[in-house]
Amino acid sequence: MIKVFVYGSFMTNGRYHQYCFQGKTFLGKGCIEGYAKYILGGIHGILPEPGESVQGEVYEIDQPTLARLDFLMNNGPAFTRSMVDVELENGETLQAEVYIWNGSV
Predict the structure, then answer these.
(1) CATH number given to 17-101
(2) Distance between CA atoms of 81 and 65, rounded to whole angstroms?
(3) What is the pLDDT of residues 11-39, one digit of tens each?
(4) What's the confidence (pLDDT) of residue 58?
(5) CA distance to 12, 28, 61, per residue, from 101 (Å)
């Protein structure tokens, strides 16, 4: 199984949450350090930014769900999927995939 950190419209009550994460294992709310979240023309994206952090949620997903996320996030041209350290609310740290915006602000 694959762990993924999501933010914006993929989080609970977000536009794409049901489509991607219904029935998937929720591992908890978490935070990634060294990134800032921006709204880019209605799309949420994160960029490296020292001293900043992004709040989100972590899910355990299968390969077909990861492929669906890659498609929705336009993995490659618009976003790059990368591995990051996520600190969960309970203090546990784990590694998860996250989508990072390829553009600039």
Answers:
(1) 3.10.490.10
(2) 14
(3) 999 888 998 999 999 999 999 999 999 99
(4) 98
(5) 21, 23, 21
Q: What pTM, to 2 d.p., does this model score? A: 0.94
Tokens at 64, concatenated: 């077909």
What is the C-alpha separation between 82 and 78, in angstroms, rounded? 13
* Alpha carbon distance 99, 8 (integer Å): 11
β-pair partners for 95 = 85
Sequence ranges of the domains in the chain = 17-101
- By three-state DSSP, how is residue 15 classified? coil
Residues with Cβ within 8 Å of 76's Cβ and at least 6 positions away in sequence, in order, are none
